[in-house]
Amino acid sequence: MGRFDLEYPKDAINTVKRENDRGVYALKTIHHIINTCQILHVSFNIPTQSFPVILPMIGQMGSFDRPSADIGDPLDLYLHGYVSNRIMNLGRSASDEKGMPVCVAASHVDGLVLALSTFHHSYNYRSTVLFGHAVLVEDEEERMYAMELITNSVVPDRWRHTRLPPTKAELQSTGILKVKIASGSAKINTGGPSDDKKDMEDESIKDQVWTGVLPIHATMGEPLPGPYNRVGVPDHIAEFSKDFNDDNQQYALNAARDLKK
Fold this sequence. Notes:
- By secondary structure, the protein is an alpha+beta fold.
- Helices cover 27% and strands 28% of the residues.
- It has seven helices and eight strands; from the N terminus they run βαβββαββααβααβα.
- It comes from Fusarium denticulatum.
Protein backbone atom coordinates (compact mmCIF):
# COMPACT_ATOMS: atom_id res chain seq x y z
CA MET A 1 0.00 0.00 0.00
CA GLY A 2 1.26 3.50 -0.84
CA ARG A 3 1.65 6.54 1.34
CA PHE A 4 -1.15 7.51 3.67
CA ASP A 5 -3.45 10.12 2.12
CA LEU A 6 -3.67 13.27 4.22
CA GLU A 7 -7.17 14.64 4.80
CA TYR A 8 -8.71 17.92 5.84
CA PRO A 9 -10.25 17.33 9.29
CA LYS A 10 -14.04 17.27 9.28
CA ASP A 11 -15.66 20.15 11.11
CA ALA A 12 -18.89 22.15 11.12
CA ILE A 13 -17.77 24.14 8.07
CA ASN A 14 -16.52 21.54 5.61
CA THR A 15 -18.48 18.37 6.44
CA VAL A 16 -20.63 17.17 3.53
CA LYS A 17 -24.14 16.68 4.91
CA ARG A 18 -26.45 15.64 2.05
CA GLU A 19 -25.37 12.46 0.23
CA ASN A 20 -22.44 12.36 2.64
CA ASP A 21 -21.19 9.11 1.13
CA ARG A 22 -20.04 11.25 -1.80
CA GLY A 23 -17.88 13.42 0.44
CA VAL A 24 -14.11 13.30 0.04
CA TYR A 25 -11.59 14.99 2.34
CA ALA A 26 -8.29 13.75 0.88
CA LEU A 27 -5.95 16.65 0.06
CA LYS A 28 -4.77 14.90 -3.11
CA THR A 29 -8.28 14.64 -4.55
CA ILE A 30 -9.33 18.16 -3.56
CA HIS A 31 -6.15 19.80 -4.84
CA HIS A 32 -6.38 17.90 -8.12
CA ILE A 33 -9.92 19.18 -8.72
CA ILE A 34 -8.69 22.75 -8.09
CA ASN A 35 -5.61 22.39 -10.29
CA THR A 36 -7.53 20.95 -13.26
CA CYS A 37 -10.29 23.56 -13.22
CA GLN A 38 -9.75 26.43 -15.66
CA ILE A 39 -11.90 28.84 -13.61
CA LEU A 40 -12.18 29.10 -9.84
CA HIS A 41 -15.00 31.04 -8.19
CA VAL A 42 -13.79 33.04 -5.21
CA SER A 43 -16.35 34.36 -2.71
CA PHE A 44 -15.76 37.04 -0.10
CA ASN A 45 -17.55 39.79 1.81
CA ILE A 46 -17.10 43.53 1.37
CA PRO A 47 -17.98 45.33 4.62
CA THR A 48 -19.66 48.23 2.82
CA GLN A 49 -21.91 46.07 0.63
CA SER A 50 -25.09 44.14 1.39
CA PHE A 51 -24.27 41.07 -0.70
CA PRO A 52 -21.31 38.70 -0.94
CA VAL A 53 -19.10 38.99 -4.02
CA ILE A 54 -18.08 36.11 -6.31
CA LEU A 55 -15.24 36.54 -8.79
CA PRO A 56 -14.04 34.07 -11.45
CA MET A 57 -10.27 33.78 -11.14
CA ILE A 58 -7.31 31.68 -12.25
CA GLY A 59 -5.42 29.84 -9.54
CA GLN A 60 -3.22 26.91 -8.62
CA MET A 61 -2.18 25.00 -5.52
CA GLY A 62 1.50 25.20 -4.63
CA SER A 63 4.13 25.75 -1.95
CA PHE A 64 6.74 28.49 -2.25
CA ASP A 65 8.61 27.10 0.77
CA ARG A 66 8.53 23.55 -0.64
CA PRO A 67 8.31 23.80 -4.46
CA SER A 68 8.66 20.02 -4.88
CA ALA A 69 5.78 19.25 -2.50
CA ASP A 70 3.36 16.55 -3.63
CA ILE A 71 -0.20 17.49 -4.62
CA GLY A 72 -1.37 15.50 -1.59
CA ASP A 73 0.66 17.64 0.83
CA PRO A 74 -0.61 20.77 2.62
CA LEU A 75 -0.45 23.55 0.02
CA ASP A 76 -1.43 27.18 -0.45
CA LEU A 77 -3.67 28.45 -3.23
CA TYR A 78 -2.25 31.22 -5.41
CA LEU A 79 -4.71 33.44 -7.29
CA HIS A 80 -3.92 35.78 -10.18
CA GLY A 81 -5.63 39.11 -10.80
CA TYR A 82 -5.30 42.75 -11.77
CA VAL A 83 -3.44 44.62 -9.06
CA SER A 84 -6.17 47.18 -8.34
CA ASN A 85 -9.28 44.98 -8.41
CA ARG A 86 -11.44 44.69 -5.30
CA ILE A 87 -10.16 41.41 -3.97
CA MET A 88 -6.52 42.49 -4.29
CA ASN A 89 -7.24 45.72 -2.41
CA LEU A 90 -9.09 43.83 0.31
CA GLY A 91 -6.30 41.28 0.56
CA ARG A 92 -3.85 44.14 0.97
CA SER A 93 -5.86 45.93 3.65
CA ALA A 94 -7.31 42.95 5.58
CA SER A 95 -7.53 43.93 9.25
CA ASP A 96 -7.26 40.33 10.46
CA GLU A 97 -3.60 39.32 10.59
CA LYS A 98 -4.59 35.92 9.14
CA GLY A 99 -5.97 37.66 6.04
CA MET A 100 -9.34 38.07 4.38
CA PRO A 101 -11.75 35.10 4.74
CA VAL A 102 -12.59 33.56 1.36
CA CYS A 103 -14.33 30.50 -0.07
CA VAL A 104 -13.09 29.00 -3.33
CA ALA A 105 -15.22 26.66 -5.44
CA ALA A 106 -14.28 24.47 -8.40
CA SER A 107 -16.49 22.07 -10.37
CA HIS A 108 -16.30 19.63 -13.27
CA VAL A 109 -19.40 18.13 -14.91
CA ASP A 110 -18.57 14.66 -16.25
CA GLY A 111 -21.95 13.40 -17.43
CA LEU A 112 -25.71 13.78 -17.56
CA VAL A 113 -27.42 10.91 -15.76
CA LEU A 114 -30.87 10.24 -17.26
CA ALA A 115 -33.29 8.05 -15.31
CA LEU A 116 -36.86 6.78 -15.75
CA SER A 117 -38.18 9.58 -13.54
CA THR A 118 -37.15 13.21 -13.89
CA PHE A 119 -36.74 13.25 -10.11
CA HIS A 120 -33.90 10.72 -10.38
CA HIS A 121 -31.97 12.56 -13.08
CA SER A 122 -28.54 13.63 -11.91
CA TYR A 123 -25.04 14.69 -12.94
CA ASN A 124 -21.75 12.91 -12.68
CA TYR A 125 -19.49 15.57 -11.24
CA ARG A 126 -16.45 16.53 -9.18
CA SER A 127 -16.76 19.60 -6.99
CA THR A 128 -14.79 21.08 -4.15
CA VAL A 129 -14.88 24.05 -1.80
CA LEU A 130 -11.86 25.43 0.05
CA PHE A 131 -12.04 27.76 3.04
CA GLY A 132 -9.11 30.00 3.87
CA HIS A 133 -7.60 33.42 4.42
CA ALA A 134 -6.18 35.48 1.56
CA VAL A 135 -3.27 37.90 1.74
CA LEU A 136 -1.55 39.89 -0.99
CA VAL A 137 1.88 38.46 -1.86
CA GLU A 138 4.46 41.25 -1.50
CA ASP A 139 7.72 39.28 -1.67
CA GLU A 140 9.05 39.55 -5.24
CA GLU A 141 10.58 36.08 -5.30
CA GLU A 142 7.32 34.50 -4.16
CA ARG A 143 5.37 36.60 -6.69
CA MET A 144 7.57 35.29 -9.51
CA TYR A 145 7.15 31.73 -8.23
CA ALA A 146 3.37 32.13 -8.22
CA MET A 147 3.24 33.72 -11.69
CA GLU A 148 5.25 30.87 -13.18
CA LEU A 149 3.14 28.30 -11.30
CA ILE A 150 -0.12 29.80 -12.57
CA THR A 151 1.16 30.27 -16.14
CA ASN A 152 2.24 26.64 -16.30
CA SER A 153 -1.19 25.61 -15.01
CA VAL A 154 -2.72 27.13 -18.16
CA VAL A 155 -0.40 25.14 -20.44
CA PRO A 156 2.39 23.05 -18.87
CA ASP A 157 5.88 24.50 -19.46
CA ARG A 158 4.40 27.64 -21.04
CA TRP A 159 6.37 30.08 -18.88
CA ARG A 160 9.77 29.35 -20.42
CA HIS A 161 8.30 29.35 -23.93
CA THR A 162 7.24 33.01 -23.67
CA ARG A 163 9.08 36.32 -23.84
CA LEU A 164 11.03 36.65 -20.60
CA PRO A 165 11.62 38.33 -18.23
CA PRO A 166 8.36 40.15 -17.50
CA THR A 167 8.56 43.92 -17.82
CA LYS A 168 8.34 46.24 -14.84
CA ALA A 169 4.92 47.44 -16.04
CA GLU A 170 3.64 43.86 -16.32
CA LEU A 171 4.77 43.05 -12.80
CA GLN A 172 3.31 46.25 -11.37
CA SER A 173 -0.10 45.61 -12.94
CA THR A 174 -0.39 42.01 -11.71
CA GLY A 175 -1.48 41.02 -8.23
CA ILE A 176 -1.06 37.64 -6.55
CA LEU A 177 -3.15 36.48 -3.61
CA LYS A 178 -2.06 33.59 -1.41
CA VAL A 179 -4.84 31.70 0.33
CA LYS A 180 -3.77 29.79 3.42
CA ILE A 181 -6.18 26.87 3.49
CA ALA A 182 -8.03 26.28 6.75
CA SER A 183 -10.40 23.55 5.59
CA GLY A 184 -11.91 21.93 2.54
CA SER A 185 -13.96 19.08 1.14
CA ALA A 186 -15.00 17.59 -2.17
CA LYS A 187 -18.14 15.89 -3.42
CA ILE A 188 -17.97 13.39 -6.27
CA ASN A 189 -20.66 11.45 -8.10
CA THR A 190 -20.13 8.69 -10.65
CA GLY A 191 -22.18 5.91 -12.17
CA GLY A 192 -25.46 5.40 -13.96
CA PRO A 193 -29.10 6.06 -13.12
CA SER A 194 -30.99 4.64 -10.16
CA ASP A 195 -34.79 4.57 -9.97
CA ASP A 196 -37.52 3.64 -7.52
CA LYS A 197 -38.28 -0.06 -7.20
CA LYS A 198 -41.85 0.51 -8.43
CA ASP A 199 -40.65 2.04 -11.70
CA MET A 200 -37.96 -0.60 -12.13
CA GLU A 201 -40.60 -3.33 -11.90
CA ASP A 202 -42.83 -1.65 -14.51
CA GLU A 203 -41.77 -3.17 -17.82
CA SER A 204 -43.97 -0.78 -19.82
CA ILE A 205 -42.06 2.23 -18.48
CA LYS A 206 -38.70 0.63 -19.23
CA ASP A 207 -39.92 -0.07 -22.76
CA GLN A 208 -40.66 3.63 -23.32
CA VAL A 209 -37.95 5.63 -21.56
CA TRP A 210 -34.25 5.74 -22.47
CA THR A 211 -31.96 5.65 -19.46
CA GLY A 212 -28.22 6.00 -19.21
CA VAL A 213 -25.40 8.53 -19.14
CA LEU A 214 -24.36 11.19 -21.63
CA PRO A 215 -20.63 11.63 -20.89
CA ILE A 216 -19.37 15.22 -20.87
CA HIS A 217 -15.75 16.23 -21.20
CA ALA A 218 -13.94 19.45 -22.11
CA THR A 219 -12.07 19.23 -25.43
CA MET A 220 -9.35 21.39 -26.94
CA GLY A 221 -9.60 22.02 -30.66
CA GLU A 222 -6.81 22.35 -33.21
CA PRO A 223 -4.45 25.25 -32.38
CA LEU A 224 -5.25 28.32 -34.52
CA PRO A 225 -2.27 30.61 -35.21
CA GLY A 226 -2.58 34.30 -34.35
CA PRO A 227 -2.28 37.05 -36.97
CA TYR A 228 1.43 37.70 -36.28
CA ASN A 229 2.46 34.12 -35.43
CA ARG A 230 5.59 32.91 -37.28
CA VAL A 231 6.29 29.53 -35.70
CA GLY A 232 4.80 26.07 -35.87
CA VAL A 233 2.82 24.58 -33.00
CA PRO A 234 5.43 23.70 -30.34
CA ASP A 235 5.55 20.29 -28.74
CA HIS A 236 4.51 21.56 -25.29
CA ILE A 237 1.20 22.79 -26.75
CA ALA A 238 0.51 19.80 -29.02
CA GLU A 239 1.29 17.28 -26.28
CA PHE A 240 -0.78 19.12 -23.69
CA SER A 241 -3.78 19.36 -26.02
CA LYS A 242 -3.67 15.61 -26.73
CA ASP A 243 -3.23 14.66 -23.08
CA PHE A 244 -5.99 17.07 -21.99
CA ASN A 245 -8.47 15.57 -24.45
CA ASP A 246 -7.51 11.96 -23.76
CA ASP A 247 -7.59 12.34 -19.97
CA ASN A 248 -10.92 14.17 -19.88
CA GLN A 249 -12.61 11.73 -22.23
CA GLN A 250 -11.34 8.72 -20.30
CA TYR A 251 -12.44 10.13 -16.95
CA ALA A 252 -15.95 10.90 -18.23
CA LEU A 253 -16.29 7.38 -19.64
CA ASN A 254 -14.95 5.81 -16.46
CA ALA A 255 -17.33 7.92 -14.38
CA ALA A 256 -20.29 6.78 -16.49
CA ARG A 257 -19.25 3.16 -16.02
CA ASP A 258 -18.36 3.81 -12.37
CA LEU A 259 -14.76 2.73 -12.91
CA LYS A 260 -12.50 4.13 -10.21
CA LYS A 261 -9.36 5.75 -11.57
